[in-house]
Each structure stands twice: as structure tokens, then as C-alpha cells.
From TrEMBL:
Protein name in UniProt: Polyamine export protein
Family according to the record: Belongs to the UPF0053 family. PaeA subfamily.
GO MF term (any one): flavin adenine dinucleotide binding
UniProt subcellular location: Cell inner membrane
Record keywords: CBS domain, Cell inner membrane, Cell membrane, Membrane, Repeat, Transmembrane, Transmembrane helix, Transport
SMART domains (UniProt xref): CorC_HlyC
Pfam families: CBS, CNNM, CorC_HlyC
Originating organism: Melaminivora alkalimesophila
Keyword Disulfide bond applies: no
Function (record text): Involved in cadaverine and putrescine tolerance in stationary phase. May facilitate the efflux of both cadaverine and putrescine from the cytoplasm, reducing potentially toxic levels under certain stress conditions.
Lineage start: Bacteria, Pseudomonadati, Pseudomonadota, Betaproteobacteria, Burkholderiales
Superkingdom field: Bacteria
Amino acid sequence: MSLPESLIVIALLIAASAFFSVAELSLAAARRLRLRQLADEGEPRAERVLAMQEQPGDYFTVVQVGLNAVAILGGIVGEGALSPYLSGLLALWLPEARAQTLGFLASFLVVTSLFILFADLIPKRIGMANPERMAVRVVGPMLVCMGLFRPLIWLYSRAADLVLRLSGLPAQRDERVTSEDILAMMDAGARSGVLAAREQQVIENLFELDNRSVVGSMTPRDRIAYFLRDDPDELIRARIANEPFSTYPVCERDIDHVVGYVDAKDLFQRALNNQPISLAEEGLVRKVLIVPDRLSLAEVLEQFRQVHEDFAVIVNEYSLVVGVVTLNDVMSTVMGDLVGPADEEQIVRRDEHSWLIDGTTPIDDVLHAVGLDELPHAEEYETLAGFLMVMLRRVPRRTDTVDWDGYRFEVLDVDSYRIDQVMVTRLAGAARLSGSAPARQEDQAAEVRS
């Protein structure tokens, strides 16, 4: 074989090896969501790639057979094509034996370098740059190759399946998309600038609805504005003016005997038309949704959807009212500080190392704001006030403090046993507790100061 013919054969072998390299990496790196999008846009080859990803064994068998065959042929052809010429050139200055040895080594290095560069590195970078597009382009020729090498494919695939079964290793990759996968994608999108940081936070809040208790987003019992069934017109009008809300529970005798709720729009309509307001009037008081305080926000949303309501009364295991929740409360949890006026913020950052936090703030929000991973006895409370009560083992008083894991929680204001404001401060130079000895840590962490 002449030198030009050998060079042409080497070029063809490099092209074949590059094709198999692109085919291998593009199928492995192609994202199923993107392939599904291409299929929905009318790309028929995307469906074939999706089918290949479901059963990739035969596909990769063809790739490996092709790559290994090309590598062997490339070595044979390359050594025979370049070695004589390089040896003859080196023989002008070196002894014949040494010239042949160095010519062989030089031929080997040249051919190997060409294959590494043009048959491996560059094709794989092309395949990684746009794996879905490359996968749909090579799937047709790969199907032809799979048809040509069917006997070899069957033999090697069955042998590989047997080895995997005997070793207990998985034969297929897990294509299930988890919430962690989605959050990781959102985090990557935020870092690259495709997704705004606020939008990323909203998506993370959505995934946390299953883990957030309704108690963390409700209006607590002591802040509920309600009517009694027999309240007179004057009292109803005065309460509407002083405590404007969209919905009011209606009770018999006291707040723990809720019989329904009244929409503020119905009351306003009667007030504007100078009509008397009587909660005993038929049709004014609506049936109220009652939910237990152990539900998550996701479960409350589902109940809202089922009964077509956006207001619910929350009761504990003793059937006592602990709060009320609206659809707007849930959406405020999802949207975070994108909604609501600034004076309703529960967490205010004072400086780099301190936060002023309302006692009713959900503990998950506190952890996220100050950068803590967890707090002790997390199953026993839902709010920052609950954490302080559990740690102090009594109702906190003003100036009480709790130190935990390098942070100090100081009670600034208490109103009728209700914790209004807590100052959380990151202690300078404080050692972070490891969490390996809970009982010892709790003894060290909780400190009461009056």
C-alpha cells in the first residue's frame, strides 16, 4: 500500500472512530427532558434516541466493537504506512537498527496522537457541547451498524448481561427525576444567571410545602378577629373598621365553637347600602373548612382545591381553635418577600451577624435566614417561640437567652406570655457544636439570663 493510500485509510479510520466517540458520549449525555421537547417539536429521530436510552446495551456494544476494531486497524496501518519512511529518513544520520527502532516509535506516536486528538478529544467535546442534537444525527447510522453487527451484538450483550447479573450491578441508569435533581438544576440556573435568585427561592419554597406545617403559616389564635352569632350591628361595623380582614370566623359563645365564616365583601355591601347586618340572616354565614393542626401546607392546598374554599380554621387534637389560614397565607409562604408590605416582615437582618425575628416565625424560615442546619428537638415545635420554650422549659421572659451552635437567641419583648421579638446573634469565634452528643450539647447550649 502506497503512502497516499495509507494516509487515506488512516483518515477514514479516524473519521470512523470520531463517529463512534460522538455516538457514545452524545447518547450518554443527552437529557431526556430536552429530547422529549425535540420530539414534541416534530423531530422523529428524538423518539429513537429516547428508545435507545431505555435499552442502551446493543447501542454501546456496537460503539465498543467499532472503537476497538478501528484502534487495532489504525495501529496496523499506521505502523506499516509511516514507519518505513520515518526509518529511512532517520537512517541518514543514525545507524540502521536504531533508525528502525526510532522510526517505529515515531510512527506509533504520530498515529496515536492523531487518533487521540481527532478521534477522541475533539469528537467528545463536540458531543458534550450539544448532546441532544448530535444524538439525533448519529442515531440513524448507528441503527444501520446495529443491523450489520447483529450476531456480534447478541453475543457480547448477553455476555455483559450475565456478568452484570452475577455481580449484582445495575444494567440501566435510573431515569427518575427527584426534587433534589430539580433543585440542583435551579441552583445551577441561578448561578449562571438564567434564573433570578428570587425565582429560585420561590421554586425551593414550593418543594418545601410538603414539609412545612400549616401552623407555621397560620394567623394564631390571639390575632384572630371573629364575630359571635348574636353580635349586634354596631359591634360588627366597629370591628370591620378597626380590624379589616377579608374573612371573619363566626362562633357560638366563644372562639372554640366555630359555626362558619362571613366574607367581608358581603358585610361591606350591606354597610354601603345602609342595610342592617345580622349574622343570623340566612345565607350570610358560610360553611367553614376545619383542618387539623398536623397537616402540611401541601395537604391544606389540596383540601382548598377539593372544597373550592380559600379559608380554613385550624384546630388541635382537643378541638380547640389554634389559628386560621387562607390561600393568601400559603401563597405568601411560597412567594416569600416578593409579596406583602415591608412592615409585615418577620425576619429583619440588622447587620452581618444579627437578625431581629418575630417569635411566631416558622422555624424553617429561621434556619434558612441565619444559616443553621437544624435545632434540637425539632419535632416538638413549629416556631421560634416554641424553640425557646422547649430549650428553657418554661415560658420565656424578657432578656432570657439561649446559646446554641454558635448563635445566641435573646428575648427582647414579651406581650402577655407571647414572644414578640427575638434577637438572633452569631457569636464571634464561637465553636460550632457537632451534634454527636445531644444531651451534653443541650446542657451547654441553654442558658437563662434574667
